[in-house]
């Protein structure tokens, strides 16, 4: 298969690059905004036509949640209009979406068909991307994920390692619950979809297994990184000056993905261990 990976310089895009080596049966085109700006429909359609692309894996997105509040039109252009451009190219698509399409007010893991109610500009634009994609390309696969981190790019794991080394004390919120997801495991899930005997279109939830708060996550990060000099304190969200509201409970139910593709998913602690080991290499 000839596979175009967009946003290939991001966390997930880089993990797709790494994992592609273990899947040599395909030809890959790894592009980011420099090589292929997905907001330009003509460029997208031309690229797909000229390179004979069979499948697009869209890892490109406007992911800065705070900045999206101040500049929703730009977020909308990248998270929704550009997704419609990809759909217009007429190939199969695997697109990545987010737990932020939900309100985060629930107390049970969200299923794919639960009511959506985004509370942020980022969530609204990602939801609009889902809608546009499904209306133009009903055969698409959408994977919603959450709390993504990797050894590539900037993320919570790297920030906590840095702060843990710099500070003696750190307050981290314990009233927001979710599932940290190693982008390498999401990349593996994408290859599971690509190489399944049949194409199973639709929306799926994919994160690592288990749940925790950001506070618990930080304790695990520090332990694995060997940081002992920083005392981590649990704080409430209201004690932290968030510029944008964050969901209190954003756990995704992954049953549909596991049943459809017949796979087990690693626990978040396992993913974190592999990520920190790789960062130490
Ligand atoms: N990070 C999370 O915690 C999280 C949680 C849930 C879901 N997701 C979703 O998971 C997916 C992957 O996230 P990620 O963390 O890997 O994102 P990321 O690290 O921010 O990577 C996104 C990449 O897309 C590029 N990009 C932006 N605009 C583009 C354009 N017009 N054309 C082509 N490329 C463009 C970005 O370039 P610049 O850096 O130059 O803008 C960046 O390299 C996204 O769909 C995101 O919404 C992420």
How would you characterize this protein structure?
This protein has 281 residues and is an alpha/beta fold. The protein has a single domain, classed as Rossmann fold, CATH 3.40.50. The chain has a six-stranded parallel beta sheet with strand order 2-1-3-4-5-10, sandwiched between helices. A two-stranded parallel ribbon has the order 6-9. It is globular. The model has no long low-confidence stretch (mean pLDDT 97). The structure holds NADP nicotinamide-adenine-dinucleotide phosphate.
Strand order of the largest sheet: 2-1-3-4-5-10
Which segments are poorly predicted (pLDDT under 50) over 5 or more consecutive residues?
none
Please state the structural category: alpha/beta
Order of helices and strands: EHEHEHHEHEEHEEEHEEHEHH
Task: Summarize it.
With 281 residues, the chain is α/β, with parallel strands linked by helices. It has helices at residues 11-20, 41-51, 65-70, 72-88, 121-136, 156-166, 183-195, 214-225, 255-261, 268-280, and strands spanning 2-6, 27-30, 55-58, 92-98, 141-145, 148-149, 169-173, 177-178, 181-182, 202-205, 212-213, 231-235. The chain is globular, with a radius of gyration of 18 Å.
């Amino acid at each position: 298969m000839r596979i175009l990976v967009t946003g290939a310089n991001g966390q997930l895009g880089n993990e797709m690059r790494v994992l592609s080596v273990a899947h040599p049966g395909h030809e890959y085109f790894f592009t980011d905004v420099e090589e292929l700006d997905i907001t330009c429909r003509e460029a997208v359609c031309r690229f797909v036509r000229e390179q004979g692309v069979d499948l697009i894996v869209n890892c490109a997105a406007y992911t800065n949640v705070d900045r999206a509040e101040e500049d929703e039109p730009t977020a909308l252009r990248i998270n929704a209009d550009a997704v419609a451009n990809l759909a217009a190219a007429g190939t199969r698509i695997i697109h990545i979406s987010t737990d932020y399409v939900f309100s985060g007010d629930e107390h049970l893991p969200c299923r794919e068909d639960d009511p959506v109610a985004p509370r942020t500009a980022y969530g609204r634009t990602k939801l609009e991307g889902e809608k546009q994609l499904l209306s133009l390309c009903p055969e698409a696969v959408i994977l919603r994920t959450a709390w993504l981190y990797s050894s590539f790019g900037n993320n919570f794991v790297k920030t906590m390692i840095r702060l843990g080394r710099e500070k003696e004390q750190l307050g981290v919120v314990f009233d927001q619950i979710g599932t940290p997801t190693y982008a390498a495991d999401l990349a593996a899930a994408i290859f599971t979809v690509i190489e399944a005997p049949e194409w199973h279109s639709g929306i799926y939830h994919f994160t690592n297994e288990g749940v925790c708060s950001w506070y618990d996550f930080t304790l695990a990060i520090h332990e694995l990184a060997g940081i002992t000099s920083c005392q981590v304190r649990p704080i409430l969200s209201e004690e932290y000056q968030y510029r944008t509201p964050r969901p209190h409970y954003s756990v995704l139910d992954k049953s549909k993905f596991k049943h459809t593709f017949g796979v087990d998913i690693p626990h978040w602690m396992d993913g974190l261990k592999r990520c920190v080991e790789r960062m130490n290499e």
